[in-house]
Design brief:
Elements lengths: L1 H14 L1 H40 L4 E5 L4 E2 L2 H6 L4 E12 L9 E6 L10 H5 L7 H6 L3 E4 L1 H7 L6 E6 L2 E10 L9 E5 H8 L4 E2 L1 E6 L5 H11 L4 E4 L1 H44 L1 H9 L4 H45 L12 H27 L3 H4 L13 H23 L6 H31 L5 H15 L1 H39 L4 E5 L2 H4 L7 H8 L4 E13 L5 E8 L13 H8 L4 E5 H7 L6 E6 L2 E11 L8 E5 H8 L6 E6 L5 H12 L5 E5 H15 L1 H28 L1 H9 L4 H43 L9 H5 L1 H12 L1 H8 L3 H5 L3
Parallel strand pairs: 4-8, 5-7, 14-18, 15-17
Antiparallel strand pairs: 1-10, 1-11, 2-9, 3-4, 3-10, 5-8, 6-7, 12-19, 12-20, 13-14, 13-19, 15-18, 16-17
Helix pairs in contact: 1-11, 2-9, 2-11, 2-12, 2-25, 9-11, 9-12, 9-17, 9-25, 11-12, 14-15, 14-27, 15-16, 15-17, 15-27, 16-27, 17-25, 17-27, 25-27, 25-30, 27-29, 27-30
């Protein structure tokens, strides 16, 4: 068998190095893209988990509130519980600094008297060189910062840095540097009392960390503690919080993982094409082997081994390429997660062995799948027919009708999976619908190619030299469908992904635009400048609203704040509080906005976004119970409205209702409606002069807030553009590979063509036109499949994962322009093989056996 591998595989690969390199690269790119996305996801998750581990230390349990804070009075109840060995309070906050544009500082307030047993980052901070407890407690604004944060800010220990907190500029003094390897790169530790004062959070905490006497009875202790605390207390192990965050990110990460798999699927087609071509080229060799005693199993094993010899180097090369690509993507992934879900500062990639193993399995699996059918074909080659000289390479016929039948069945299956995803779920069945659609389109590709070749011949009946060369190229493509159809299918898949994502993004953008036109009607928007980096973490000074309310030019002010509600079962969603809501800025699922907004302002009522209504099965008149600091409260849904700001879903109360139950009337932002919109520019100037001398506030006009929203939108979809570009690149490899193998297979035909008078230029033209037909057919079938993919991505994936209704919007000009760039790219990819065909020597090509 080893001798057989050497004779039939290794020597062949040595003679056809370019094809082997293209195959290896196709597998490497597929593996690299998949591993890069998984690594970027894993690194972002790991960065968040690490911050939890450092804050919790050795904690067995932690107590948090259902919303953003808990009162200090809970500490005594927790500490006096018989199961509790020790407890320590924690307060977390976020600030921005002009020294790190786009970055933030994660401030961690700890108690030096109670945290030593927990081995938290706060306890480790006390090991910093020069730490003095008396100074630490007596001076405000002292922090012990991560070395990377100190380096990024550009200060030395003992000096100060400027930070923005709640629209105020404050100074923080670097009292020391955390030990190497402790904390995240954005972390700074502070005394909890001074941090409470800095934020105006006296008497409030983020969490209480707990050590138990008997960790084996953790569940019992958790239930007992929960029964002693108010209803809005959430008692759980710290790792449960990271699991909840992981569930929150699952939809986003599954989406980009599914997109990354397209490159591997395209690689399957390329391996199939390459091994299939090598089988046809070596029919005589196979016939000799079979005639001299080689079994079908041995021949099949040899060609599967050829696939592995192409796949294994591809996997080996793909792993470091994946790590490199992950380092380029981690910033986009981290920024997208921070913009939409939770603050993550992932600057270093963590390549998990599990991700590497799965990527290897996918790469080798894709190789074996691609090589299986050609290997099976090789094992079934009849020795007698294989030994006949000059047997036509294109004589093999595909079961086009049977493949079309299977393809139609796969398309029906796609419809079924879409229906299931939208009705009973689970949501991931929407990706099965995409896979079934791609499979159906691939199986139907040979029939569609044959049909397109037929009509190309019908339309091209001219007798000119150009017409004859074009007809010869289309006939060549039709005769070699059992290989060229695979190349067309690979290109089709890449194009369909491009079309599908393009239409989905366009539909989303158009829907967001319609939504913004409905909800963004204020003239001026104000929020802390830090909100652009850390989201709704900072609050606005109350005197700004008082000042605006006194201005005669101001018609009304709508205020907004939000927090996240975490329930004991892991369910979480946004809780918003709106003051003085504008009646014309909400678009409800079934209209009647004025009536619903009026009802909403009555005590005990709330509004729900479409995504929350889908998650909790709510509708107008439904009742929802949520924990508050004053106990569980039930609210009646006054209406369900469209909202695209957060896929977690949002329950909205009036500001008065929020203050009544949470005792907090601070705000994150407000919108100003003017009597005369022309006053907006002057108001912006006045606000900056009076309240934002150091740019503590972000003040937007109506136009600039719209531009900012679309900046975030484009950043969110930046990764999809990268992935579809890679898929196109892999597919272009396929065109070049397919044409190169066809040229080598048709050496004798090319020689005869030259012998009867064809020039080198004419030979080159035939193969360039064939490459053009490959690009044309791939783009046309890709458009059809891509439009179907767009329907699933827009109407099924978005609805089932995120609960959003997206209005389908097809950018037809961009869709129909697809062949205008795919065909030239395909011709360019075919230039080297076509030039090789033109250089074939006639005497060598027509020499007999």
């Amino acid at each position: 068998m080893l001798h057989l591998l050497h004779q039939i595989v290794l020597r062949y690969l040595a003679r056809h190095k370019l094809i082997a390199v293209l195959d290896v690269l196709s597998v490497a790119v597929g593996v690299a893209v998949y591993l890069a996305i998984q690594t970027a996801n894993h690194s972002a998750n790991q960065a968040f988990r690490s911050s939890i581990d450092l804050i919790a230390g050795k904690s067995h349990l932690e107590v948090r509130g259902a919303s953003e804070w808990i009162p200090e009075t809970w500490i005594e109840r927790v500490a006096n519980h018989p199961a509790v060995q020790a407890s320590t309070p924690v307060l977390e906050g976020y600030a921005t600094t002009p020294s790190i544009p786009g970055g933030y500082i994660h401030l961690l307030g700890t108690d030096p008297f109670t945290n030593s047993e927990f081995e938290t980052v706060g306890a480790l901070a006390q090991m910093a060189e020069g730490f003095d407890l008396e100074t630490w407690l007596s001076r405000p604004g002292l922090v012990i910062a991560h070395p990377e944060l100190v380096e990024n800010v550009g200060v030395q220990p003992g000096s100060s840095m400027v930070a923005d907190i709640d629209g105020r500029t404050v100074e923080l003094t670097i009292a020391g540097v955390l030990p190497e390897g402790v904390g995240s790169s954005s972390m700074a530790v502070m005394d909890i009392g001074w941090l409470q004062e800095l934020y105006g959070n006296q008497g409030r905490l983020t969490s209480i960390q707990i050590l138990l006497h008997d960790p084996s009875r953790m569940e019992e202790a958790s239930e007992s503690l929960a029964s002693l605390l108010p209803e809005d207390a959430v008692v759980q192990a710290p790792e449960q919080r990271s699991q909840q965050v992981q569930r929150m990110l699952d939809g986003f990460q599954l989406n980009i993982t599914a997109l990354s798999m397209v490159s591997i699927l395209v690689g399957v087609f390329l391996i199939y094409n390459s091994v299939s071509a090598s089988v046809v080229r070596r029919r005589r060799e196979i016939g000799i082997l079979r005639s001299t005693g080689a079994t079908q199993r041995q021949v099949m094993g040899a060609f599967l081994a050829e696939g592995l010899l192409l796949g294994i180097p591809g996997v080996v090369l793909g792993i470091p390429l994946g790590a490199l690509l992950a380092s380029l993507l981690i910033g986009d992934v981290s920024q997208t997660i921070s913009s939409h879900y939770i603050l993550v500062n992932a600057t270093q990639i963590t390549v998990a062995s599990r991700d590497v193993f799965v990527a290897m399995v996918y790469g080798i699996g894709a190789t074996l799948i691609g090589a299986y059918l050609p290997a099976l074909e090789a094992s079934r080659v009849p020795p007698l027919s294989a030994l006949r000289p000059n047997r036509a390479v294109e004589a093999k016929d595909l079961p086009v009708g049977r493949l079309l039948t299977f393809g139609l069945a796969a398309l029906l299956l796609s419809v079924f999976f879409s229906w299931k995803a939208l009705t009973t779920g689970p949501a991931w069945m929407s990706f099965l619908a995409c896979l079934a659609l791609a499979t159906g389109a691939s199986l139907a590709t040979p029939w569609v190619c044959r049909w397109l070749v037929y009509w190309a011949s019908r339309w091209n009946q001219g007798q000119s030299q150009t017409a004859m060369l074009v007809r010869l190229a289309s006939d060549n493509l039709g005769r070699s469908l059992h290989r060229s159809a695979v190349t067309v299918a690979a290109l089709m898949m890449a194009v369909s992904m491009t079309i599908g994502v393009t239409v989905m993004v366009s539909s989303f953008r158009n829907t967001i635009d319609l939504w913004i036109n409905q909800v963004m009607k204020a003239d001026v928007y104000v929020t802390p400048a830090s909100s652009q980096v850390i989201g709704f973490q900072g609050f606005l000074p109350g005197e700004i609203v008082d000042y605006l309310e006194a201005l005669p030019e101001v018609a009304s002010i709508e205020t907004y704040r939000q927090s996240v509600i975490h329930l004991q079962d892991g369910t979480h969603f946004i809780l918003g509080a709106v003051g003085n809501p504008a009646r014309k800025t909400l678009r409800f699922l079934d209209g009647e906005a004025d009536r619903k907004v009026e009802t909403f302002q009555l005590p005990g009522y709330a509004l729900a976004t479409e995504s929350l209504a889908r998650k909790l099965e709510l509708k107008e008149g439904s009742r929802v119970s949520i924990p508050t600091p004053s106990g569980k409260r039930e609210f009646t849904i006054a209406g369900v409205y469209y909202d695209y700001s957060d896929d977690r879903g949002k329950l909205v109360l009036t500001r008065e209702e929020y203050k009544r139950h949470w005792g907090d009337d601070r705000i994150h932002s407000f919108s100003v409606f003017l009597k005369d919109p022309n006053f907006a520019e002057e108001l912006n100037r006045e606000l900056r002069e009076r309240f934002s001398a150091n740019e503590e506030l972000a003040i937007y006009s109506n136009q600039t807030i719209r531009e900012r929203i679309f900046e975030v939108f484009d950043q969110t979809f930046a990764i999809t553009y990268v992935l579809r570009s890679i898929a196109i690149l892999v597919a272009v490899f396929g065109v070049s590979l397919s044409l190169a193998t066809l040229v080598m297979e048709r050496t004798r035909d090319i020689g005869i063509f030259r012998a009867i008078g064809a020039s080198r230029a004419q030979v080159r033209t035939v193969y360039l036109v064939e490459a053009g037909f490959t690009g044309l057919f791939g783009s046309l079938i890709g458009i059809a499949c891509g439009l179907g993919m767009a329907l699933i991505l827009t109407l099924v994936v978005n609805k089932s994962f995120f609960g959003w209704t997206i209005q389908l919007h097809v950018p037809w000009a961009e869709v129909w322009a697809t062949p205008l760039w795919v065909v030239p790219v395909a011709i360019l990819a075919g230039f080297i093989p076509a030039s090789g065909a033109a250089k074939i020597e006639v005497s060598e090509a027509v020499r007999g056996e």
